[in-house]
Amino acid sequence: MLIPVILSGGAGTRLWPVSRKAHPKPFMRLADGQTLASSTIRRALKVASGGVSLTVTGRDYYFLTRDLYREAAPEGEHHFLLEPTGRNTAPAIGAAAHWVRDHFGPETLMLVLPADHLIRDHAAFAQAVSSAAELASKGWLTCLGISPTHAETGYGYIRAGEPLSDGLEIAAFVEKPDAETAQRYYESGQYLWNGGMFCFSAGAILAALEEYVPDISVGIAQVWRASASDAEPVELEPESFAAVRADSIDFAVMEKAQRRAVVPVSCGWSDIGSWQAISELYEGDALGNRVRGEAVLVDSRNTFVQGEQRLVAAVGVDNLVIVDTGDAVLVASRDRAQEVKAVVDELRRTEHDSAIHHRTVHRPWGSYTVLEDAEDCKVKRLVVRPGGVLSLQRHRKRSEHWTVVSGEATVRIEDREFCLSPGEATQIQAGQLHRLENHGDDNVHIIEVQTGSYFGEDDIERLEDIYGRT
Amino acid sequence: MLIPVILSGGAGTRLWPVSRKAHPKPFMRLADGQTLASSTIRRALKVASGGVSLTVTGRDYYFLTRDLYREAAPEGEHHFLLEPTGRNTAPAIGAAAHWVRDHFGPETLMLVLPADHLIRDHAAFAQAVSSAAELASKGWLTCLGISPTHAETGYGYIRAGEPLSDGLEIAAFVEKPDAETAQRYYESGQYLWNGGMFCFSAGAILAALEEYVPDISVGIAQVWRASASDAEPVELEPESFAAVRADSIDFAVMEKAQRRAVVPVSCGWSDIGSWQAISELYEGDALGNRVRGEAVLVDSRNTFVQGEQRLVAAVGVDNLVIVDTGDAVLVASRDRAQEVKAVVDELRRTEHDSAIHHRTVHRPWGSYTVLEDAEDCKVKRLVVRPGGVLSLQRHRKRSEHWTVVSGEATVRIEDREFCLSPGEATQIQAGQLHRLENHGDDNVHIIEVQTGSYFGEDDIERLEDIYGRT
Question: Which keywords does this Swiss-Prot/TrEMBL entry list (chains A, B) (predicted)?
Answer without folding.
Answer: GTP-binding, Isomerase, Nucleotide-binding, Nucleotidyltransferase, Transferase
